[in-house]
Amino acid sequence: MQEYPIGTPGQPWSDEEKAQWKEQQSIQRSYREEVLEKLPDSLDGFSIVQYGALPYDEEKYPLYALVSEPVSQTKPTILVTGGVHGYETSGVQGALRFINNDVMRYTSRFNFVIVPCISPWGYETINRWNPMAMDPNRSFYKDSPAPESAQIINFLDSLDVSFLMHIDLHETTDTDNSEFRPALAARDGITNTNWNIPDGFYTVANTQSPQLDFQKAVIESVRKVTHIAPADDEGRLIGEPVQSEGVICYDKKKLHLCGGMTDATFVTTTEVYPDSEQATPEQCNQAQVAAITGALDYLMAANL
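Structure for Peptidase, as requested:
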């Protein structure tokens, strides 16, 4: 296997090597054009809240959330997050599409907090990490050094609400194996082991409370849009045992994942496969919306 071009095999990166990695990153698309300009100027029953800005460039990277206004004490609250990993495009675009086309159908039953792009620098550079070579999705804990993670945690704490559901929108891409896992191994001075990229959609439930009927409802909703990832020959997806079709589990709090930053009863992380020969970018965006609406329809049918 080809060695990663930065660092010495077996030795974790120093600050110098992290800086070398950052110097190799470049802007490839516009957060303002592709994200901020797609947020509605106003939406009945919601406020568009700037909850922070990334310190790398506060003017360029303001952080926004759509929040029910007011938050009704008689309705449960739903959290939707996208763009924790900036390179996972459909998570961001799916959240925006849900805001612009679908959220109003559910406002009589739920409050919403929707954060379409947690990592805008990562979005512009098409990156998993932030400029400090840090993965925000392993950094959701109190006083996190990752500003992407710390600022959303502080914002949610300031709302002083509990969440019934949190859906975090992600992708698994071929670049996980070609770039991001090799970079991670090089950064940490460990041996890289690639995983089999699942061909299709799957979800990651929370180990402590998988809520498999809920996960199945998400899978069935997405199945109408794109295909569901089959398990490998060992009955696994990305190395984890399949709990039901297209569903695996992670311990989200232990791993400091975005999906573990609340105590929501119903938690799922979507994983779309944009590199599949069977799926288009449009289908990937639609799959993210179908995951959200399938989850909400399940909660409504269960009268939750």
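The longest strand covers residues 46-53.
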